[in-house]
Structure formats: structure tokens, C-alpha cells
Specification:
This protein is of the alpha/beta class and about 650 residues long. Among the domains are: about 55-110 and about 120-140 and about 190-330, Rossmann fold (3-Layer(aba) Sandwich), CATH 3.40.50; about 410-595, no CATH class. It has helices at about 5-30, 35-50, 65-75, 120-125, 140-150, 160-165, 200-205, 215-220, 220-230, 245-255, 280-300, 310-320, 325-330, 330-385, 390-435, 435-450, 455-500, 510-530, 530-535, 540-550, 550-600, 605-635, 640-650, and strands at about 55-60, 95-100, 105-110, 130-135, 155-160, 185-190, 190-195, 205-210, 235-240, 265-270, 305-310. Strand 10, helix 11 (about 280-300) and strand 11 form a beta-alpha-beta unit. Helix 15 (about 390-435) runs parallel beside helix 16 (about 435-450). The longest helix is centred in the middle third of the chain and has 55 residues, at about 330-385.
Length: about 650
């Protein structure tokens, strides 16, 4: 299956999952099984699906054919090059190609001068007035290509200005930009570009991230710390005639493999057509290509199966001209198949784990509520059946008995309210460590320490101190989470035992994922700012600014995610018991009302028994329907096998 076909299949699957969740939400509401928290969680799941994006990043040094490869894979149907592709530098700033139907086709360009402020690209995306916006004419490939050339614009500034904007200056040009005879440095005019246009794959949620070369990457640490690590696939492009150069290796080590994961990271050995000299036999050329693949794989630390030799230029021409033989020779279809096989199943698994797993949790909670409802109904049915032929004194006794049970349950709720009070206190303790106010205070202390530092060691210690304090706060938060989990588990067991509630153990939770993200950010910090040469050669004001607008901002985003996850978990562990308490209160009220009605008019006994028997059948049918929802959400997997147990459990 081709990349386009598999992406279409993925989009259909995602749409089907969204439809199932929407129908589950409606069904829960219609059957009185939902509440405000459940509905909120389902709405958030649907929103997450609607906003789902699949990010493919292309990374390379300049003149490796990166833009040509993007053209060949995604835009050949336009019959021409869409992204500028020529000798030298064509992509001078990180460029996102996507489609937002709420916006007109356009190019949004962020001026490079915004780097002088302590504001990230992510934050600036929420302030449209900061961007230079151009309409994009999508009627012809030529007009699009001409407009997209704006992304590669450059300008001359002084070396001091370039350094203030975060660019490294190097006389040799190996680890930074060179200045000319007038002391000027050529830098990108734009810091970031967003291209919004209605391409079929972009409409379905694909986002293409086109990155600049080493010097420009180094000037935008947010790209390394956030955009590349969050990409679902990264294609690292090399040139077949040079293999892995020293600058290639720096980009790979510092920007691609730095996240510590190899899944979704593919290397592309481009321009193999340069070896087709027409003088050597095909076997000899093939052997040379295989040798380059093996050498590149060894240097990059990748399996050889993750290095793909291609000719993007020949592949593009072959697609445009319909030349199947040339297309096969370009090896482009092999790369596209690998990208489809590597990217989409992994992405589908991620979505399934994050959304379908939560849906299963909600289904299980609804089924437990139905089980409690069924148990209460059967108890009522047994009680009323025993009243057949009994005199008024027996009915009066039954009414007192049910009322006594109701009073006892209400008294027992005092324990529930006491636990909620303790939970509130533990939650306050938790957010005292994990909350954003604690992080802001620590960030303030770090900024003051950096400002007051007289020597490079003081600067380094202050920056490292932020990570140390963050880890301590996460460790304290994890301890509070453990206390909350233990208390809730004990409450679940007690209420299940004393009141017959159908409650599974509360869902486990850990901040380990966020702790790993802090580890990754610290590694990125060490690469970007930890070197003694960087600290010694970069002005303290500039270094402080860059640290806070990149590393500290990413730490803040990690804490924001951790806070959302913790709040979500707290709601999730309280919702089942709150629903069960409401259900038991309702059942006791109905039992009392039934006996009272029968006490007042004994001729309603048989009618009420028949009504309860019908309700028993109704709940059985609801549990079957709920099991079918579970099976549908899982797509016939594990939940489908468990469906009969859900439907028939007492």
C-alpha cells in the first residue's frame, strides 16, 4: 500500500473512531449513564481526534536535496516543483506545511527580529499581528512556487546583531556563520514560516516540517528541544556522493538522534543518480550504493534497513512524466513504502493507546454503574416478590427496613465526605510542588542567580539548579500521588464491601513520562548551553535570554502537561465512586417509594413487579450494547473478546 493510500486508510480509521466515541457519548446521555465529568472527557477525546496531526520532519545540511525530496514524495501531482529546489540554500528557516480549513491559503512569515525577545515561536503563533502574512495563489504550480521562494530570503546584519539573535559566528564557517570583508553576516530574514494550503494529505492532518541547515538550526533551539522530538517521523537526508560528512554528523548527533529514540528516524542517501555515469555496469554501481548504505548506517548507529538510497530528482521527474521504469530505478517507492509502514501503524497505535484506552475506561465505569443498578433492581424485585400474599404489617415492616437502610447509607456517606476532605488536602499538597506557581518561583530564583553570577561557573550552576529543583518537585509530587492512590484504593475496597458497589481498582498514575521529558530537556540544555566555550564566548545577557526563551519555556510546557494529566487523573478516580454513590441513593429512594406505594395501594404490587422485571431485561440489553461499543472502539481486539463477560456479569 502506498503512502497516500495508507494515509487515507488511517484518516478513515480515525474518523471511524471519532464516530464511535460520539455515538457512545450520545448513548450514555440517553441511558442516564453519563455525568458532567464523563461528558467532558468524551468531548476532549473528540477534540483531540479532530486536532490530530501527523508530523513528518525533513532534516539535512544544505544542498542535500531535501526540498526536492519533499516535492517528489508529496507534490509531484502538481506537475512541477512546489518548494524551491536549486543549488545552495533554499530553506533558511523552519517551515511548516499544513492545512487549517478555518484559514485562507497563505504564507505566514515570522521576522527574525522576534528572537531578540523572550518569546517562543509556539507563543507567537497565538499573536497573528507578529507575522508577515501573504495570500497564496494555489491555482497554478508556478504561482505557488514563486510565492514560496520568500521562505528562503536572507539579509545582511552586523556580526554583533547576528550574535544577539542567537547565531554562532565562526571565521572558518564550520561551526557557525562567516562574516564578509565588511564585517557583515548573512542571516535568514524569517525565523519561522507556516504555509497553509489545501493539499489532500495536508487536509487529512499531515504536517510537513522542512528544516534549514546546521547554522540556522542552531539558532533556533526550540526546533531541537520541541519540534523535532515531537515529530512522528524524521527523514535525515545525506548526499550519496559524500556520505556522512562531519557537519552531517553534527546535525544527526545534536538534533536528530538527541531524543534517544530510533523509531521513526530514517536516513535517506539522496542523489544516487550521480553514480549513474553510463560507463560502469549496473552491478558495480549497485555495490557502491550498498557500500555507502552500510557505511552511513554504521556511522549513524542505525540498522542498514533504515538507510534508503534514492534519487529524489529522478523520482520527481518520473512521477511527472509517468515513467514507471525510471521511478523504480529512483528507489523512491521503496522509501515511500517504508515511511508508510514505519509511520502510520506507530501513529495509529499511539492514538489507540491514548484515546481508545480512555474510552474503554469510561465504558468499564458505565458497565459497573449498570451492574450496581441491576443489583439494586434485583433486590427490589426479590423484596416485592416476597410481599405477595403478605398482610399489611409485613409491608409496613418492609418499608421501615428500607428506610433504615437508606438512613444507614446516608450515615456511611460521612466517611465518604471525610475522605474527600483528606483528598482535597493531599491535592493541595501535590499542586504546591507541581503547580505552576512553584515553577514560576523557581524560575525567578534561577533568573536572579544567573543575573548575579560573576563567573561562568555561577551561570552554569544556576542553569543546572533549575533542573535539580524541578526534579525534586516531581519526586515530591510522585510521593503525594502515591498517597492519594493508596487512600482511594482503600476507599474503593471499603465501599465495594459495605455497600455492594461494583468498583475496579483506581487507575494507576505516575509522573515518570514527564520526568523522562525533563531528562531529555537537560540533555538538550547541555548541548545548547552547557559547553564552557559557549558560556565564555556568549554575553551573559544573551545567554540568559536564550536559556529562558528555549529551555525554561520547554520545562514550563512539560509542567503544564503534567498538571493537566494529574487533574485528569484526579477526576477519573473520583468519577466512578461519585456515580455509584448517586446510583445507590437513587435505588434506595426508589425502593422506599415502591414499598410506600404498595402499602398505600396493594393492587400495584403485581404492576410494580412486572415493571421491575421489564427493567431487568432493559439493563441486560444495555450491557450488551455497551459491550458492543467496547468491541467497536477496540476494533475487534481484546475488548471484543471481553465483551461477553461485560454483558453477562452479574
Amino acid at each position: 500500500m502506498s503512502l497516500v493510500q495508507q494515509f487515507n486508510a488511517y484518516s478513515r480509521w480515525r474518523g471511524g473512531l471519532g464516530s464511535s466515541i460520539a455515538r457512545l457519548r450520545q448513548w450514555l446521555a440517553e441511558n442516564g449513564l453519563g455525568d458532567a465529568q464523563t461528558d467532558l472527557r468524551l468531548r476532549q477525546m473528540l477534540e483531540k481526534l479532530r486536532e490530530d496531526r501527523l508530523v513528518v520532519a525533513f532534516v539535512a545540511e544544505f544542498s542535500r536535496g531535501k526540498s526536492e525530496l519533499i516535492n517528489a514524495i508529496f507534490f509531484a501531482e502538481y506537475g512541477s516543483r512546489i518548494l524551491p529546489s536549486s543549488a545552495g540554500r533554499t530553506t533558511m528557516c523552519p517551515t511548516e506545511l499544513l492545512y487549517d480549513p478555518a484559514d485562507e491559503p497563505s504564507i505566514s512569515l515570522l521576522p527574525i527580529e522576534t528572537r531578540s525577545r523572550q518569546t517562543t515561536v509556539g507563543d507567537l503563533k497565538r499573536t497573528p499581528e507578529e507575522w508577515h502574512r501573504l495570500p497564496l495563489n494555489t491555482s497554478t504550480a508556478e504561482s505557488m512556487s514563486e510565492a514560496l521562494r520568500r521562505v528562503g530570503e536572507q539579509k545582511y546584519v552586523s556580526a554583533a546583531t547576528a550574535q544577539d539573535l542567537g547565531f554562532s559566528i565562526d571565521v572558518a564557517g564550520e561551526r557557525g556563520l562567516q562574516f564578509d570583508d565588511l564585517g557583515r553576516v548573512q542571516i535568514p530574514r524569517w525565523r519561522h514560516a507556516i504555509i497553509n494550503f489545501p493539499h489532500p494529505l495536508l487536509e487529512q492532518g499531515l504536517v510537513i516540517l522542512d528544516t534549514p541547515g546546521l547554522n540556522a538550526i542552531g539558532a533556533e533551539p526550540e526546533l531541537t528541544l520541541s519540534l523535532l522530538p515531537s515529530a512522528h517521523a524524521v527523514l535525515f537526508i545525506l548526499a550519496a556522493d559524500t556520505g556522512v560528512t562531519q557537519s552531517d554528523l553534527v546535525v544527526w548527533r545534536d538534533h536528530v538522534s538527541a531524543a534517544g529514540q530510533s523509531r521513526g528516524r530514517l536516513a535517506v542517501l539522496n542523489k544516487i543518480d550521480g553514480l549513474w555515469d553510463g560507463l560502469r555496469p549496473p552491478g558495480e554501481i549497485e555495490a557502491e550504493i550498498e557500500g555507502q548504505v552500510a557505511t552511513s548506517a554504521r556511522i549513524l548507529g542505525l540498522p542498514a534497513a533504515q538507510v534508503f538510497p534514492v534519487s529524489a530528482q529522478k523520482g520527481l521527474v518520473a512521477k511527472i512524466n509517468g515513467d514507471e521504469e525510471m521511478l523504480e530505478k529512483s528507489c523512491l517507492p521503496t522509501l515511500e513504502r517504508a515511511l508508510a509502514d514505519e509511520l502510520l501503524p506507530a501513529k495509529q497505535q499511539i492514538v489507540t493507546e491514548s484515546i481508545a484506552a480512555e474510552a474503554r475506561e469510561l465504558v468499564a465505569a458505565a458497565d459497573a454503574l449498570l451492574a450496581t443498578r441491576l443489583a439494586g433492581l434485583r433486590e427490589q424485585l426479590a423484596e416485592l416478590s416476597d410481599l405477595r400474599g403478605k398482610n399489611e404489617s409485613v409491608i409496613h415492616y418492609m418499608m421501615r427496613k428500607v428506610k433504615s437502610e437508606k438512613d444507614d447509607f446516608e450515615k456511611g456517606l460521612q466517611q465518604y465526605y471525610a475522605v474527600r476532605s483528606v483528598l482535597s488536602q493531599l491535592t493541595n499538597n501535590l499542586f504546591a510542588h507541581l503547580g505552576m506557581e512553584a515553577l514560576r518561583e523557581q524560575t525567578r530564583k534561577t533568573r536572579e542567580a544567573m543575573r548575579d553570577a560573576a563567573f561562568s561557573k555561577g551561570l552554569s550552576d544556576a542553569m543546572a539548579g533549575l533542573f535539580r529543583a524541578v526534579r525534586e518537585n516531581l519526586a515530591r509530587s510522585d510521593k503525594e500521588i502515591g498517597e492519594i492512590a493508596k487512600m482511594m484504593e482503600a476507599m474503593y475496597r471499603r465501599f465495594a464491601s459495605e455497600h455492594g458497589m461494583k468498583l475496579d481498582a483506581p487507575r494507576a498514575f505516575s509522573l515518570a513520562r514527564h520526568e523522562k521529558e525533563i531528562d531529555r530537556l537537560e540533555e538538550g540544555f547541555k548541548r545548547q548551553f552547557g559547553g564552557i566555550l559557549i558560556i565564555l564566548t556568549r554575553e551573559k545577557r544573551v545567554l540568559t535570554q536564550q536559556f529562558f526563551e528555549t529551555v525554561a519555556v520547554q520545562v514550563r510546557k512539560t509542567f503544564e502537561k503534567a498538571n493537566r494529566d494529574v487533574e485528569h487523573w484526579l477526576r477519573a478516580i473520583m468519577a466512578p465512586i461519585e456515580s455509584q454513590v448517586r446510583e445507590i441513593q437513587l435505588q434506595l429512594k426508589r425502593r422506599l417509594e415502591s414499598v410506600r406505594r404498595i402499602h398505600e395501594a396493594t393492587d400495584t404490587l403485581e404492576d410494580r413487579i412486572a415493571e421491575l422485571a421489564q427493567g431487568e431485561q432493559l439493563i441486560g440489553g444495555q450491557r450488551v450494547e455497551l459491550a458492543e461499543f467496547a468491541a467497536e472502539l477496540e476494533g475487534g481486539g481484546q475488548v471484543a473478546e471481553a465483551a461477553p463477560r461485560l454483558a453477562t456479569a452479574a
